[in-house]
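Input (DUF4124 domain-containing protein):
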Amino acid sequence: MLLATLAAPALAQNKGDSGKKLYCWDEGSRRICSDTLPPEAVNSARQEFNARSGTRSAEIQRALTAEERADAALAEAQQKIDAAAADTRRRTEQAMLATYGSEDALRRVFAERTAIVDNNINTALYNVASLREALAAQLLSAGNRELAGQKVSDKQAGEIRQRHTELLAQLRLQAAFEQQRKAMEVEIAESLARYRELKGIAPPAAPDAAPAPAPTQG
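Output:
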């Protein structure tokens, strides 16, 4: 009984020590080890050891800076965007194969989209021409008034500024529609090439080059 009583505190102490840790980290060129972790070392890279057995129980990387956290978040977001784009591409290709039984059917869809964009371009061209003609007429009228020694009215000057602003806006629209049309041409070519690849269809043969003219007899 006496031996059991004396051994109990020692067992309890050993049990408590089994969870105690030893921390080791670097401060510049110095290696620091302690059974307590000071606040200034919380964000440092460190190793943790079991104080009783001496075995390493964990290795903690240093905390990221705000800039590093932002970079990591950006990289993670980009990975998600890339994965979503790849998944969308895969589902689009599957839908392409299931929906379009022939290349002509796919071309008809692109033809409808192309017609819409071409109509937008033609409308913008008409608006630009009309606004340019009206602006030129207003500028000519204002110039004639000045040559005649008359003052250009505030109303007329305001109309000229407004017409000029509208013309610039239409020119931007026209440029945007034309850029959209060029992008569609690239999209159409890439989609048709991918469709042929998925279907195992050989691309159309390029037209043969015209034969060279026969040399003239001297």
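Strands lie at 21-27, 30-34, 46-50, 56-60.
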